[in-house]
C-alpha cells in the first residue's frame, strides 16, 4: 500500500504544542497534524496520537490550547515532543499560566489560542479534536516570526511509546 512519503515531507507543516488540563492533571505535546477546518463557524482541528499521554488528558478536557512555535523555539519542541508526561512534568521546566478553564498557556509562545472541544473523532492512530476558539493571544505590534516547521524537528525521537 502506498504511503504519503514525499508528499507529506514536501508540506513541511507548522509545528504546534497542544496543552490540556483535566482532573488535576496537565499535559502537552508536540503536534504536526493540525489545521483550520471551517470559516463559519470558525473551527480548528488538532490530531493527537492515541499513544500519547496528552491524548488521555485531552479526552477529559473541555478546552485545549494550541501554541504556534517560532523557529527559534526548538527547545520547546524537544521538551514537548521528546519527553513523555508519563515520566516528566514538562510544566516544571517552562514558564506557563493557567488560561481559559485551566488550560496551560506557555509564556514563551506569542501566538496561541484556546479552543472549546466540540467533538472528537477517529483518524487511525490519531484522534481529531475539533475546536472553537474562545481565547487567543494578543501578539501586539511585534512582527510575526517564522514558525517552526516539520523539517526543523524531523530528527526528534518521540517521547511517547510507539
Automatic annotation (TrEMBL):
Keyword Oxidoreductase attributed = yes
Q: Where does the record place Basic and acidic residues bias?
A: 151-162
Where does the sequence pass through the membrane?
none
Q: Where is this region: Disordered?
A: 137-162
Pfam families linked to this entry: Flavin_Reduct
Matches recorded under PANTHER family: FLAVIN REDUCTASE, POSSIBLE OXIDOREDUCTASE
Specify the protein name.
Answer: Flavin reductase family protein
- Species annotation: Streptomyces narbonensis
Starting at the broadest rank, the lineage of the source organism is: Bacteria, Bacillati, Actinomycetota, Actinomycetes, Kitasatosporales
Amino acid at each position: 500500500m502506498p504511503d504519503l512519503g514525499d508528499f507529506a515531507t514536501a508540506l513541511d507543516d507548522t509545528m504546534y504544542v497542544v496543552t490540556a488540563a483535566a482532573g488535576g492533571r496537565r499535559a502537552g505535546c508536540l503536534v504536526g497534524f493540525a489545521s483550520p477546518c471551517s470559516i463559519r463557524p470558525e473551527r480548528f482541528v488538532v490530531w493527537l496520537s492515541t499513544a500519547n499521554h496528552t491524548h488521555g488528558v485531552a479526552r477529559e478536557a473541555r478546552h485545549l490550547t494550541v501554541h504556534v512555535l517560532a523557529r527559534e523555539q526548538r527547545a520547546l519542541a524537544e521538551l514537548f515532543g521528546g519527553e513523555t508526561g508519563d515520566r516528566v512534568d514538562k510544566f516544571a521546566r517552562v514558564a506557563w499560566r493557567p488560561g481559559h478553564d485551566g488550560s496551560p498557556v506557555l509564556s514563551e509562545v506569542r501566538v496561541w489560542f484556546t479552543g472549546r472541544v466540540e467533538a472528537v473523532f477517529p483518524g487511525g492512530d490519531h484522534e481529531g479534536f475539533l475546536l472553537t476558539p474562545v481565547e487567543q493571544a494578543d501578539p501586539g505590534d511585534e512582527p510575526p516570526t517564522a514558525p517552526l516547521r516539520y523539517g526543523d524537528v524531523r530528527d526528534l525521537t518521540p517521547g511517547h511509546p510507539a
